[in-house]
Task: structure prediction
Amino acid sequence: MTGIITELQREAMDTNVRISDLLRKALLVARKLKIPDIETWVLSELNGYETEEIPKYRHVRGEIKAFNTYNGVWMPIMFSESDTHTHRTLTHRTCSQPVSELEALIENGSGQLGMRYTPEIEARLMRAADMPFPPMLLVSESSLHGILDCVRTTILEWALKLEEQGIVGENLSFSQKEKEAASTVTINVETMSYSQIQAGTVNSSQSMENEIDFGQLNEFIERLEKSLSELTLDKEQAAELSSEVSTVKAQTASPKPKQNIIKESLRSIRTILEGAAGNISADGLLEIMSNINF
Result:
């Protein structure tokens, strides 16, 4: 009888096999091998991401449009050249929907995923565009395919590495030796943000613990500085924000940045921006901050 690991590999190579079905088989393997990190990732893909860190391959870009209910046409929301950074902030989002929902959108021929904004951002965009229709971010079908392909490839890579360690899973069961071997298998998913998936805990270690992605951090600080003039802050808040930004920049420029200091400054920045909630730039910046691990 063919082992379940070989079956998993075969199905990962078969584009006719739905990703949701592939994930359920991967869940079975992860649970039987007692690999909680893989199991958590699989469940997040099946059920949608809630409190878990959203992988980088689920960061998507779309177009902001509003559906005109009178003529049935999607109308683009236009931005002036001075608002290019605001436009970039609002057109980049994270996709937390379950894999089954993404598959259904593709199979039903809708061709795109519509993502709503917060009521505050919706209201400001409607006023700016002078239209009565709520805008949303439309993500293309190709972006959805990209997410599903990343999931399929990750499962295939994991199954191949398990096989390399002699793990077969005959009759849907694993020996103690196979379980111990699985604990040494690691997956380096470069497309994941802040994620170091490692199978098991025996003879292995994980050095990453809530580490900050400095690329994302620098991009956020750059956008924040460009948006300062658009934020409705009083002099005291503006001075405090400027001070915290300077602290973050000084730490990121240091050969040995102290992440605890950076995280404390980021928390202060978040508090200030939350006080300015309702401002379209502040809301957009807060959304970016939600993807930074601090």
